[in-house]
Amino acid sequence: DAGITQSPRHKVTETGTPVTLRCHQTENHRYMYWYRQDPGHGLRLIHYSYGVKDTDKGEVSDGYSVSRSKTEDFLLTLESATSSQTSVYFCAIGDVKDTQYFGPGTRLTVL
Amino acid sequence: DQQVKQNSPSLSVQEGRISILNCDYTNSMFDYFLWYKKYPAEGPTFLISISSIKDKNEDGRFTVFLNKSAKHLSLHIVPSQPGDSAVYFCAVYGTSYGKLTFGQGTILTVHP
């Protein structure tokens, strides 16, 4: 295991409410990523971080924001959740960009 | 604009036979090609990779083939085992992009 946890593992929320997902690593890896997995789309990158306070957008970043105030934590926030954001969210970490280790995932349902 | 495509959503194979999973990509600038395996309710795990300067990489029962002229990547599993039943994602990495791009995934089912 790459020492990566996600919380919560499951969450049900209502449209319009804010939601924050947490990714925590104990490996001191430089890079951290947030993906979402949806049927027919595979894994799509939402945001990523290449260091504390250094983040950038991925291919599906609209409606999401991230923060990384410590090396070990990477937060994903949905400011106002929508039903289209119902998905399984995976955090990943790595020291080189081409090899990533994934967390167990968070299943988010927006009603 | 999908840069990586896995055109077979699912594949069913008998135990002991070969499983061949395919992946096509559009950009010749990719440097590394990877396969990830994912079981239900777990995160994807890295399986095997190949760099663009090679055409084959083998690791036990798993072999990845790269055909750069056809922009085609394949994963061979021989012999297939029921424990190989999972979703397999191919992924590509380009130094100029700095990110992994994943295919849609193929569900492999290996029947005893």
Overview of this structure, please?
- The complex is a heterodimer of chains A (111) and B (112).
- Chain A has 111 residues and is an all-beta fold.
- In chain A, 0% of the residues lie in helices and 62% in strands.
- Chain A has no helices and eleven strands.
- In chain A, β7 and β8 form a beta hairpin.
- Chain A is globular.
- Chain B is mainly β and 112 residues long.
- Chain B contains no helices and eleven strands.
- In chain B, the strands form two sheets. In chain B, strands 2, 4, 5, 9, 10 and 11 form a six-stranded mixed sheet that branches. A five-stranded antiparallel sheet of chain B has the order 1-3-8-7-6, with no helix packed on it.
- In chain B, a hairpin with a 6-residue loop joins β9 and β10 (100-102).
- The model of chain B has no long low-confidence stretch (mean pLDDT 94).
- The chains are: A mainly beta (111), B mainly beta (112).
- The interface between A and B is medium-sized, with 20 and 25 residues.
Task: Fill in the keyword field for this structure.
heterodimer; A: 111 residues; mainly beta; 4-stranded antiparallel β-sheet; globular; B: 112 residues; 6-stranded mixed β-sheet; 5-stranded antiparallel β-sheet; 0% helix
Task: Detail the topology: elements first, then pairings.
The complex is a heterodimer of chains A (111) and B (112).
Chain A lengths: L3 E4 L2 E4 L5 E7 L5 E8 L3 E10 L2 E4 L6 E7 L2 E6 L8 E10 L2 E4 L3 E5 L1
Parallel strand pairs in A: 2-11
Antiparallel strand pairs in A: 1-3, 3-8, 4-5, 4-9, 5-6, 7-8, 9-10, 9-11
Chain B lengths: L3 E2 L4 E5 L4 E7 L6 E7 L6 E7 L4 E4 L2 E6 L4 E6 L8 E8 L6 E3 L3 E6 L1
- If interface size is counted as residues with C-beta under 8 Å from the partner's C-beta, which chains form the largest one? A-B, 20 and 25 residues
- Percent helix of chain B, as a range, is under 10%
Instruction: Kindly name the structural category of chain B.
Output: mainly beta
CA radius of gyration of chain A: 13 Å
| Helical proportion of chain A, percent range | under 10%
Low-confidence stretches of chain B: none
Give a count of the beta strands of chain B, DSSP E runs of length 2 or more. Answer: 11
Name the helix and strand elements of chain A from N-terminus to C-terminus, one letter apiece: EEEEEEEEEEE
Main sheet: strands, sense, barrel of chain A: 7 strands, mixed
On the 0-100 scale, what is the average pLDDT of chain A? 93
Overall SS class of chain A: mainly beta
Stretches of chain A where pLDDT is under 50 for at least 5 consecutive residues are none
From the spread of the alpha carbons, the general shape of chain B counts as: globular
Shape of chain A: globular
Mean pLDDT of chain B: 94
Cα distance, first to last residue of chain A?
33 Å
Oligomer designation: heterodimer
Order of helices and strands of chain B: EEEEEEEEEEE
Roughly how many Å apart are the termini of chain B? 38 Å
Individual helix count of chain B? 0
